[in-house]
Amino acid sequence: MAMRSDDQSVAQRVLDHIARGTTDAGAGVWREPVANYRSPERLAAELALLRRLPVPFCPSAALPQSGSYLAREAAGVPLLVVRGADGKVRAFRNACRHRGTQLASGAGCAKSFVCPYHAWTYNLDGGLRHVPHEEGFPGLDKATHGLVPVHAEEKLGLVFVSQEKSSAIEEQLPGIIRPDQPMFDTAERELEVNWKVFLEGFIEGYHIRFTHPESFYPYGFDNLNVLDFYGRSSRITYPFRRIRKLEKVAPEERKVEGLLTYVYHLFPNVLITILSRHTNVVVLEPLGPGRTRQITYTLANDPGAEALAEARRDKDFVGNTGALEDLAVVSSIQKSIGSGANEVFTFGEFEGCIVHFHRAMEAALRA
Length: 367
Ligand code: FES
Ligand SMILES: [Fe+2]
Fold this sequence. Notes:
The chain has helices at 7-20, 40-52, 195-200, 208-211, 305-317, 320-337, 352-366, and strands at residues 30-33, 55-59, 68-74, 77-83, 89-93, 106-109, 113-114, 121-122, 128-130, 149-155, 158-162, 183-191, 226-230, 233-239, 260-266, 270-274, 278-288, 291-300, 344-347. By secondary structure, the chain is of the alpha+beta class.
């Protein structure tokens, strides 16, 4: 895996924490009203925010060649994202300009999009190319009946989409995904849990020892993390115990591959987990106050057949037990949310990325 620019400083911070028995802490405690996990009005405001902001839609590697497309809902809106003949990624509302049928579903590669209803046909750049029996539409201006575009931009190895305006990506994030990392898997599932409850489980290491006593804790630490903040986004580093072997390595020669996991939270609803040999881009689509669709795109950390085979092996090996333990906890929280037991949830200083998220969310919703 190629080095990240700050891998060595992260390694040093981890070793310092191990030596001192400390961890990074966030700034302050946050009390989040439980109503914000239950309220349909609040969810509507969050969805409106997801349509307003530039949000990662998929990794660039999901669209490897001209004609590659991916159709999916984002914040409740069906979108079609496609790489054009010129190599540029464009996004459209996935709706035929005749009577609204969706033009594509899932992923694939196409030369054009033919509507399954009456076969109006669109170019990869969205232009309306062909209308069968066009004489039945006297006065139809094909030039103004192309697919309706939304703003798309490739950055950091991701395709960002902003549905309502072409707002710039503010966050100054370090390189997360390189262009040569191939995608080899996509998975989708629906969870009976609020999207924020699910998200919160990924971005704190305060629970590792108690929730994961046999899966993660034997290889990791109790409440020992490095936190970094990038605008509204963040990164939490989960070191493995074997990172201690770097104590004997000169700082400039330290490589962190296999010694830690990075979890980026890209505000508001995307997580990127960088494991030893593979990277997961996880998009959380809120479907209701207590329902979330989790879409996971998995990439190998390096190109080449051997790296891909190793990434596949690691992906199958990692995570099942630990992920089930996390799901059990968040499902349990979801059930208690309606019980009236808590008016607020209290996030402490060892849950700094969550506090950062709620602060950013409150500010974004107020803006
Ligand atoms: S709805 Fe698409 S061609 Fe009629
Ligand atoms: Fe966990």
